[in-house]
Amino acid sequence: MTTTEDQSVSDAVTAGSHATDIARSGAATFRTGGGQADPARVSAVVGAALEGIRAAIREQKVTYEEFDAFKRWLISVSDTGEWPLFLDVYLEFEVEKVAAETQDGSVGTILGPFWLDGQAQLDSPATLPMRDDEPGTPMILAGQVTSTDGTPLAGAKVDIWHTDEEGWYSGFASKPPAGNLRGVVTADDQGRYEIHTRKPAPYTIPLDGPTGQMTLAAGWSPWRPAHIHLLVTAPGHRTLTTQLFFTGDPYLGNDVASADKPELTLDPQPTGNGDEIRSDRDFVLAPE
């Protein structure tokens, strides 16, 4: 991840291999019920995907040179471990749209490839783990977690992670220490939470890997607007996977991952405590 398009980065392989390990382990399958794939569904989905590629070949009159370049690109994606990055950036938002058709409660969006299990367990009000001299604007995110009938969800968990001011995720780049700006915050007996952190920065997907190189070759923006990732959970309720963005961000509406939504935009206000800002956001979870 980078915050400037001309910055030289060498973390694509580090980030890609870590994301691949997580995907291979199945650690992020909490969004589904699991189970064996239905052969009829495999046939239908894979068949449709392959036909879509074949149609593109026919319509665009793909040459053998282009086909061979495509094969080399596929090999590069595998070599760097960037399949989770590519799939989450360019396909997950469509899967999320399908899932949202049958979900009530707060608006969600994609998980992305940079979630990590086993982070610091914190009670609200909480300060996320950070360096003593952590750069960035101090920020408070606070609110309440309720069920769709308005019942406060005591002890709800708010799993939160985001980049630092330079656009780096801990665990996926060499700069931030392990666990930096990550934590799982337990709400109080009224479902209320308060999290002290730093405002994140916009960033590009890794530009030194095949996903970033393809994005630049196509002339597409590689930028993600600044955002905060959240998983909000409570017993007996569906997990909410969402992100929160910031009003005025120059990359809103042009998110490379197509994950930003107007309903998810924050407008933090000064608290009067130095340059600290605060935004309140409630979450509503649907029963399982």
Give structural attributes.
alpha/beta, Protocatechuate 3,4-Dioxygenase, subunit A, globular, six-stranded mixed β-sheet, 288 residues, Catechol_dOase_N, dioxygenase
Verbal overview:
The protein is α/β, with parallel strands linked by helices. It has helices at residues 12-25, 39-60, 64-80, 83-90, 92-100, 210-217, and strands spanning 121-123, 126-127, 138-147, 157-161, 182-186, 192-198, 203-204, 223-224, 227-233, 240-246, 265-266, 269-270, 277-280, 283-285. It has 6 helices and 14 strands. It is 27% helix and 21% strand. A 6-stranded mixed beta sheet has the order 1-5-4-9-10-11, with no helix packed on it. Strands 2, 3, 6, 12, 13 and 14 form a 6-stranded mixed beta sheet that branches. It has a single domain, classed as Sandwich (Protocatechuate 3,4-Dioxygenase, subunit A). A hairpin with a 6-residue loop joins strand 9 (227-233) and strand 10 (240-246). It starts with 11 loop residues before the first helix and ends with a strand.
| Helical/strand content category | alpha/beta
Give, in spatial order, the strands making up the sheet with the most strands. 1-5-4-9-10-11
Q: What is the H/E string?
A: HHHHHEEEEEEEHEEEEEEE
Q: How far apart are the first and last residues' alpha carbons, in Å?
A: 35 Å
Largest sheet: 6 strands, mixed
CATH class: Mainly Beta
Number of E strands: 14
